[in-house]
Amino acid sequence: MMHYDVIIIGGGAAGFFAAINIAELNPSLKVVILERGSQVLTKVKVSGGGRCNVTHAEFIPQELVQHYPRGEKELLGPFHKFMTGDTIEWFEKRGVALKIEADGRMFPETNSSQTIIDCFLNEAKKNNVELLKNHAVKTISHKENSWRITTDNSEFNSDKLLVATGSNSKVWKLIENLGHQIEPPIPSLFTFNIRDNRIKDIPGVVAQDVEIKIIGSNLISEGPLLITHVGMSAPAILKLSSFGALELAKCDYKFKIEVNFIKLDFEACLKILKDTKQLLSKKIVCNATQFELPKRLWQQLVFAANIEKEVRWADLNKMQLDALTSQLTKAIFNVDGKSTFKEEFVTAGGIDLKEINFKNFESKFHENLYFAGEILNIDAVTGGFNFQNAWTGAFIAAQAISK
């Protein structure tokens, strides 16, 4: 049986970040990462389309927590200890400069996730962190102040244990056997499947600033909207999927949304259209795009209002003006299912947050048992927030473990 001072289960972002910090804070500790597969940091690899969305340029803890449908209350204290600015400094000290994009997302200046992967692998090696691949954990037990871990082909024991395996159902089961409650996993970051003639032929079109409501709920979001081959995506949709994860799962992802493409109310929009009718009386309606909408989207909404291709503004009647106003400000779409957002799969679910001490990310049931990352019932909207949760939890746990 091999003995280590600290065992970390999971060779992902949180696992590496914790291991490196533990080894730096206390070089005398013998630290090992156990990874079930032959590859490490696979989620880092695909994040941000292969660029790695490291964090988000939000520097106020009270604002940052609002991006977490689950974990908002619990993360407020930890974010006062380690958050975005600390993340930026951590990477810069290790030679990785980050940049801020217009939407607040932060990436390495190289635009490559391999930069982050190489940083972690190099820092782990430099700090004598041992990495054992193909070590899927089979059992976790606690005897005589020591953690005992068995994998496919080895046995280990350690004084302290950190579990950072993300949404791994097999590890969740092992943690459940230790007395922790697991909230069942459900998708929390997904696109909406919609079959509708208005969007069928215009995939790739982006409406820059829309408002979307889920009918029959209090869920509402704003932001860019992308028309896809199967429906709708982009931040306005992904935020709804995240904050509505539990509610939307209950209705089997079949519901209605109301889209306001121009973020004006019905009366304000109608007035503008009436004025436009006078100003552009001789123009063809479908060719005279309004409200800075993409032309193809404008045309589809015009046709949906029963305005034919050659109709001029002067020829619009009251019924057509009302119909076009409705299409612009409160268009109803039927959602019939969901699709995974790119290669990034985020779930709601995990260890019940009431069972964790968020001053050090330690189990309230077992001394020297720590957790970090998505193994906890914490998830966020897209934009680098899930990684920031991983960095924060891993760093604070590392501080406690290194003492």
Task: Give a verbal description of the structure.
The chain is α+β, with helices and mostly antiparallel strands and 403 residues long. It has 2 domains: 2-187 and 345-401, FAD/NAD(P)-binding domain (3-Layer(bba) Sandwich), CATH 3.50.50.60; 190-340, no CATH class. It is 35% helix and 26% strand. It contains 14 helices and 21 strands. Strands 1, 2, 6, 7, 8, 9 and 21 form a 7-stranded mixed β-sheet that branches. It has a 7-stranded antiparallel β-sheet with strand order 16-15-12-13-14-11-17. Strands 3-5-4 form a 3-stranded antiparallel β-sheet. Strand 4 (98-100) and strand 5 form a beta hairpin. Helix 1 runs parallel beside helix 14 and helix 11 crosses helix 13 (318-329). It is elongated. It starts with a strand and ends with a helix. The mean pLDDT is 96.
Distance from first to last alpha carbon: 25 Å
**Main CATH class of the largest domain:** Alpha Beta
* Contiguous helical run count: 14
What percentage of the residues does DSSP assign to strands (E)?
25-35%
| Category from helices, strands and their pairing | alpha+beta
- Based on Cα principal axes, name the global outline: elongated
Write the CATH fold name of the largest domain. FAD/NAD(P)-binding domain
Mean pLDDT: 96
